[in-house]
Design goal:
It is built from seven helices and 13 strands. With 245 residues, it is of the alpha+beta class. It has one domain: Penicillin V Acylase, Chain A (4-Layer Sandwich). Strand 5 and strand 6 form a beta hairpin. The chain starts with a strand and ends with a strand.
Length: 245
């Protein structure tokens, strides 16, 4: 339930990670990549490798599941999610497995397209030194388009017919999308992205940093050229810099 984005001129991708439950994250750093994930998970939520290939992702679920979470009906929401994911695989496992060796994002895209697996709903933002793409996955449907030079994406599809369709079905997703795309227009530095993702102004915070049923648990900005990640897990905490080994 995240906010992700791309800034071509700064060569940065970014993610505010939102969860419906408290989650502890961990950094995984090797000689050829660095990534973050839920502690012990089998996939990364974001990462970059030595070849300047990086990704961030945002899940897309049904309005029915989102509504149950907002109403505090956690047990029913968990059952709904099991139904929604039945027979579907998480594409982020494949993306994460390929991060260590992919020299270009085309290799990852080709692998997703050629797989016989059916996929869970995801917006996957993939960038390398020559290509920037958004992949939408759900079931056997896959759509790919070029990213705009400055773009913010949330938890709904622009191409696939699945998930929330308008503001009434997931207000936060559409509100974050509007806020992000309006504010990224004037972003000229990484400090501007710090402010976009973790605003000092309380009114702006309400539009991007989530509290309540869904909580923002971390913020990550990936510098593809320098192959590092700015990371913070609290709205009042400065970003720390993490590099691969």
């Amino acid at each position: 339930m995240c906010t992700i984005g791309y800034h071509k001129a700064l060569n940065l991708i970014f993610k505010n990670r939102d969860k419906s439950e408290i989650t502890t994250e961990e950094m995984v750093a090797e000689d050829n990549y660095i990534a973050f994930r839920t502690k012990g998970a089998d996939y990364f939520s974001c990462g970059v490798n030595r070849y300047e290939c990086g990704f961030v992702s945002a899940a897309v679920n049904t309005p029915q599941w989102t509504d149950l979470i907002y109403k505090g009906k956690v047990q029913q929401a968990n059952q709904q999610l099991k139904v929604e994911k039945r027979g579907l695989s998480n594409p982020m496992i494949l993306v994460s497995e390929m991060l260590s060796r992919a020299r270009k994002i085309k290799a990852i895209i080709d692998k997703i397209e050629s797989s016989e697996l059916s996929w869970q709903g995801y917006n996957i933002l993939l960038v390398d030194s020559g290509q920037a793409s958004l992949i939408e996955t759900y079931n056997s449907d896959i759509r790919i388009r070029e990213l705009r030079p400055r773009e913010v994406i949330t938890n709904y599809f622009s191409l696939l017919d699945f998930g929330p369709k308008d503001y009434s079905e997931y207000p936060s997703s559409f509100r974050r999308h509007e806020y992000g795309n309006n504010n990224i227009k004037s972003a000229a530095s990484v400090n501007d992205l710090f402010e976009l993702l973790k605003p000092a102004d309380e009114n702006k915070r309400k539009k991007i940093w989530r509290r309540g049923a869904f909580k923002t648990i971390s913020s990550s900005i990936i510098d593809l050229k320098r192959r590092l990640i700015y990371y913070s897990k609290d709205i009042n905490e400065d970003y720390s810099i993490f590099r691969m080994h």
